[in-house]
Task: inverse folding
């Protein structure tokens, strides 16, 4: 089954900007399917962060932004805060007729 | 505000069928417009989509699990359910129910239950 590849971890100091990549293939992101992003705080359910590549649901700070290009997508967090320490997952659709998730990235605030 | 709550046994024996129910409040499944989903997360691992169902009963399953999965809906109770047959230890995971919004191949999960841990063990 296809997967979306993310870096296992990224870190940054408070106030810095970090980016998380999500690399797919021609059967998912490269086929034009939208990418969505989730934040999972320790011990809690995932929370929708970005939908449709770059749209923020109501209540999500504008420090979070998403983009997509070719077979990859990215989530950027600007003005990193301690409360942003969490796992982040991308999600898209695959031509194998399946929703697929990324491998997940742990963000650490130094 | 839509809320989802999973319920069901936390322990299932190998080869048996895992059964979970998700109760939806704050919104009606039968009003349409959304798909109702099951997603799981193996301990310390990433997320895996299991499948989703529309209020009409139309279902879509993960091809890797399709032979063992049944998702059904009971609009009178505002609930939907998951059955996963012939379970093994590899099915031990936290199971989430979630609402899927969007269209066709651009679905995303905007509301989630808190999740329930199901352990497969004798």
Result:
């Amino acid at each position: 089954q296809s997967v979306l590849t993310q870096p296992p971890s990224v870190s940054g100091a408070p106030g810095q900007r970090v980016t998380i990549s999500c690399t797919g293939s021609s059967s998912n992101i490269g086929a034009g399917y939208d990418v969505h992003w989730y934040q999972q705080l320790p011990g809690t359910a995932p929370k929708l962060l970005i939908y449709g590549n770059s749209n923020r649901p109501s209540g999500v700070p504008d420090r979070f932004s998403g983009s997509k290009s070719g077979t990859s997508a990215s989530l950027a967090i600007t003005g990193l805060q301690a409360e942003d320490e969490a796992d982040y997952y991308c999600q898209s659709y695959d031509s194998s007729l399946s929703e697929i998730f990324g491998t997940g990235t742990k963000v650490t605030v130094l | 505000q839509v809320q989802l709550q999973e319920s069901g046994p936390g322990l299932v024996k190998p080869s048996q069928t895992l059964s979970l129910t998700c109760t939806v409040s704050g919104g009606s499944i039968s009003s349409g417009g959304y798909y109702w989903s099951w997603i799981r997360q193996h301990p310390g691992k990433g997320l895996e989509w299991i499948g989703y169902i529309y209020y009409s009963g139309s279902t879509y399953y993960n091809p890797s699990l399709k032979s063992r999965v049944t998702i059904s809906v009971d609009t009178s109770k505002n609930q939907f359910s998951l059955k996963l047959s012939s379970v093994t230890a590899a099915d031990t995971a936290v199971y989430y129910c979630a609402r899927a919004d969007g269209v066709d191949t651009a679905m995303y999960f905007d509301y989630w239950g808190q999740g329930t841990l199901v352990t497969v063990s004798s």
User: Anything to note?
Assistant: The mean pLDDT of chain B is 96. The radius of gyration of chain B is 14 Å. Chain B has no helices and eleven strands.
